[in-house]
Model the fold of this input.
Amino acid sequence: AQKVTQAQTEISVVEKEDVTLDCVYETRDTTYYLFWYKQPPSGELVFLIRRNSFDEQNEISGRYSWNFQKSTSSFNFTITASQVVDSAVYFCALSEALDSSYKLIFGSGTRLLVRP
Amino acid sequence: GAGVSQSPSNKVTEKGKDVELRCDPISGHTALYWYRQSLGQGLEFLIYFQGNSAPDKSGLPSDRFSAERTGGSVSTLTIQRTQQEDSAVYLCASSFVRDTEAFFGQGTRLTVV
Done:
């Protein structure tokens, strides 16, 4: 069965520290997509990245970077030089595609608190 | 607006009443999804629309829940005879086609008293 595990329930760091959020997934599909979303206190889920299962290149976007390793079924997210505005709940998600269906399977989320 | 819009933002209803939640997806997005977020349950998939059809309703918790989409655009999630366990944030998302990134609305917080 498709499953996403975010083992870190809550992480607290001091501003400017680097922090890595872990995501491990299970899937029977050979083609799939992985996602990260941010949910700030306002509640809206904000899309951060989508990664195709055939593309294992790491990606960097400003202070954000993602490390996708198929061998360990992991898609980890690193924030460099964290800021207070990074405080939010972060969700990792995995696509599940069937003939006529499509959905995202979400992990339970990691709450990140960045203290000044 | 350019994003996914949901209404109302908050809804308080009495147990046993029916409620309707509305979602206006991003224009041109053919795929639409409803999710539910509650404490202890995380983000649960409810239903997936492709155009006006719902090929996957497997996440709807009971027959009290139904959803429709018209004109390939607006979707309504209806909960009949609400129960306290229906209290949650209901999130709508849309994507251009399936497999592309889904953009979420701000959600409707439903409280059943």
Summary: The two ends of chain A are 41 Å apart (CA to CA). The interface with chain B takes residues 33, 35, 37, 42-47, 50, 91, 95, 97-98, 100-109 of chain A (CB under 8 Å). The mean pLDDT of chain A is 94.
